[in-house]
Design a protein that fits this description.
- The protein has about 210 residues and is an alpha+beta fold.
- It is about 25% helix and about 30% strand.
- Strands 1-2-3-5-4 form a five-stranded mixed β-sheet. A two-stranded antiparallel sheet has the order 6-7.
- The longest helix is centred in the N-terminal third of the chain and has 16 residues.
- The protein is elongated.
Length: about 210
């Protein structure tokens, strides 16, 4: 799965937990039109998250790519009790989302803490007449993508996926050698396979 879409999903999961008044939190591609808004209004108050890639000039010293993701959360709210009360509701949600976002890496080891977010109310006369308020929270997020060339020399990586091994395979053994001392010949083998749980030699007294 894409690392960027995984990160976007973590942002969405965080908003669902931290801003429970949102009826829906979903992703979109950064573009929307009147048809999209008609569908979004049905689920208001709702938030829609987009990740937009922006090039970063400085490469990482160990070989990974440094990206600067432009993250956008679009919030849509509808009048609830009295006319035009969608406006304060929208500002309240924008402020709460910005507070969650600020300096947050969303539990992703590839993400730097988010830069200070920007809050905007999108003004549209037709939406106002419909009792709908629209706003966005935007921020930049440093993101590291790719494989560390330095780490590749220090740790084994799977040749097909490029992923670092996080545990020793069960059937791994390291090396075989033959020891000769006079007429005595002995084969040595360092085996890291897990021991058989049924073995009578397991336990504190095992040598």
């Amino acid at each position: 799965m894409s690392q960027i879409t995984e990160f976007r999903d973590k942002v969405m999961a965080t908003l669902r937990t931290k801003v429970p008044t949102l009826r829906e939190v979903e992703w979109y591609d950064g573009l929307f039109d009147e048809t999209d808004m008609e569908e979004w209004i049905v689920n208001a108050p709702a938030a829609y998250v987009a990740a937009i890639g922006v090039p970063y000039n400085d490469p990482h010293s160990t070989g990974e790519m440094n990206l600067c993701l432009r993250m956008v959360v679009t919030v849509i709210v509808e009048d609830r009790i009295v006319a035009r009360d969608a406006d304060p509701q929208c500002w309240d949600l924008l402020e709460r989302i910005a507070d969650v976002v600020n300096m947050n890496s969303f539990g992703d080891p590839n993400a730097a803490p988010a830069n200070i977010p920007t809050l905007k109310r999108l003004r549209d006369p037709e939406l106002r007449r419909q009792g709908v308020a629209l706003g966005v929270v935007e921020w930049m997020q440093g993101f590291t993508l790719g494989t560390s060339r330095s780490e590749a020399h220090e740790y084994p990586h799977h040749p097909d996926t490029g992923k670092r091994f996080d545990k020793i395979p069960d059937n791994l053994f390291i090396g075989e050698s033959t020891v000769r001392r006079g007429n005595l010949v002995r084969d040595d083998r360092v085996d890291l396979s897990p021991p058989d749980p049924a073995s009578p030699y397991l336990g504190e007294d095992a040598l």
